[in-house]
Design goal:
The protein is an all-beta fold and 113 residues long. It contains no helices and eleven strands.
């Protein structure tokens, strides 16, 4: 059974930075052929796509995070990272990792003003 495990969330002041990690566990290899995605869901908000990365390294970002967030992949470790800079209070949300139909449980990011 494949699982995604996120880590790295926490409380940070506006303007600060955090790096999230998402690691896959299990023996299935389907995830190696699909994009890895970061979503977030804030209180009362719909789930929003934040960033996506393919195995070849091609990335896309949501408009609200372009220029501030960057995603990268360590193929050897089956881990994806989300570097978040210049954080804003509106970035406060649960951040979830996704590949195909598999979702992590999320990690909370709180940005104080």
């Amino acid at each position: 059974q494949v699982q995604l495990v996120e880590s790295g969330g926490g409380l940070v002041q506006a303007g600060g930075s955090l790096t999230l990690s998402c690691t896959v566990t299990g023996t299935a290899v389907f995830y190696r052929y699909q994009p890895w995605n970061w979503y977030r869901q804030g209180p009362g908000n719909q789930r929003e796509l934040v960033a996506s990365i393919t195995r070849s390294g091609s990335t896309t970002y949501g408009d609200s995070v372009k220029g501030r967030f960057a995603t990268s992949m360590n193929n050897a470790k089956d881990t994806v990272y989300l570097q978040m800079n210049n954080l804003r209070p509106e970035d406060t949300a649960v951040y979830l990792c996704n590949v195909g139909t598999v979702w992590g449980s999320g990690t909370q990011v709180t940005v104080s003003s």
